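Troubleshooting: if your tokenizer reports a length mismatch, compare against these two reference records.
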Amino acid sequence: MMLYQPFNLHLAHQQGSWYNEPRYLVDHKQLLEALKYCRKCACYTNVESTYRDGGYIKMTAVCDSCRHVIRNLYSHNMTAVQQALDAEHIDFSRDGRFDTPGHSALYSTYTLMDVKSSLIVASQLVKVTETTSSQAMEKEGLIRCRREVEDAGVCIGSLTTDQHIMIAPYMRKEWTELTHYFDLWHIAKNLKKKLCEFASVAANRVVGHWSETIIRHLYHVVVNTEPGSQLRIE
């Protein structure tokens, strides 16, 4: 909310008597009163000042009532999805998303999806202050999602992940009974990136013309390999 706005004297003279226009200063208490009620449900909100720079102030209003409703709706939907999975062993894939790219993310959303039905079975929000670093948020998200599905009685048959530096060691040491696959899309993406870097050198440009064929062959080999073989797992 902007409390002060630069004034253009020349523009004011063109538009009329600028000194007759009413001007207001707003108290902090008045701002709190304006944001006192939720616009959705008219319940009381918790208001706090989150940022201030000169005459500019940013305020955040949180409605506990709406947040409670959303949490209950999410829990209800997740329970319905988990109960619908009646198979003995469910094949899951997972991935994490961050609020910012790089290694300075503050939040990470981690989800588990049933490969067969494409239903989101579990989702967890992790804040970096709950872990040792932004890289550790994915591992923490996986641990929480695992706890969520196991508490719901869902039996996990296999899990497909990317080659995250903390996920693979965790799967080898802490979840040894589970069949672990690496996501082929991520492997192909990393391979293509390395091929492009290699082909950027003048002497290796011919490799760039073969990069798409190499990626297609990679998919062909994996798809036509028998399930459970060392090639598909590694």
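Reference record two:
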Amino acid sequence: MAVTLSEVRRRVAQVHQGADLEQQLCFYDAWASEYEEDVSVLEYGAPQYAAACLAAAFGANTQEALVLDVACGTGLVAQELQAVGFRHFHGLDGSPGMLEHARHKGLYQDLKQCLLGQEALPSPEGCYDAVVIVGALSEGQVPANVVPELLRVTKPGPDRNASEMAFAGIFCQTLLFTSILWPLSITGLELAINDIAVDRKVSTMPGRALPLRCSVRNHSQEEELFWLREDGTVDLKDGNRMTSSSLCVFPVSVEDNGISFTCRLARDASVQVSVTLDVLFPPILTGEDPPSAEEDGDVTLDCHAKANPPAQMTWRKDNTTLMLEDSRYEIFQTSELYQLKIRGAQKSDSGIYDCLAEYPGRTEQKSFHLVVGDKTVPFPTEAVIAAAVVVFLTILFAIVARRERILKCFRKPSESPSNTAL
């Protein structure tokens, strides 16, 4: 689905909302894959203007110049500089995600991560023929105190002193900075959770309290808010609805992992912002011993495992890692089940089986006791029933065939009349 202009405006607005450094880097890392699509929707022309400005200053000497691209992002400025004849680029940025996308373009001979304004530039004095910074020199992004560092690593020009060069460079940067901020002036009403106006994940741990505060931005009147936990409405007190609304998730539990909380404008359901809980917890292993098995039968051991992030799972038998190359062993794994199936179990398969979950800094295990006994001979139930039926029918037929004789045995002898005279 194509991104809309309003969505891009919200993301660009988020860049300039003064979040702390860790949040900003996380935001840029997440934005890197969609950054170029978003700026194309904005018809962002600052990289082209910068390239034209620098090409005009260098004239025919572009191919030998070494250019430092500060806050290089995904490499849009280097693309435009290459189009006007520049060939040698070094890049700096604070976001590893942005640098990775820039690296894939193959334009830069050197790329480094640098927290601009907090660290010195990782270059010696007078190293670069030109230094460019496009669309990033602003409050909440790259601070103005980086300018002396930009001048330090730039070679002095042959025809202008350092102050003239600084003035020209800052004038060009100010013009480009104004062009990138233009979309913000027409950004509409929006919501922010904990001062961040984009959907995101929030990491926490079981047992902690997680406060969530939703606020309305760019509003001209009081606005009513409500919260959703997944698809269900959260009950709020009357004084906790207008323009600003707060929740506290306490205590956070393992079951809260993946649950989303959404703050929504009452009069317009399309205006909303969400956070999804990323509850970090070590492995929780459960399961029961399998019933005693017979030789040649199949055995299943179910190890129920939950962890976030997911743990590395293995099986061990009698303290030795189980070699699964044997075709008799099968592994089935889901997000919450690690199952071992043994086909055609043998008495030698009896023993203690450990389900191991390796997690950063710790290993959890759950033990299962398996007993494989002799194969029992099954009772011939069908044969016994068949024989009983035959015997019964034989007796029945014998009785029927000899019924006359049998009946005579039960008849009384007839009495003859008496001839005795009185």
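Descriptive notes for reference record two:
- The longest helix spans residues 21-41.
- The first strand starts at residue 66 and ends at 70.
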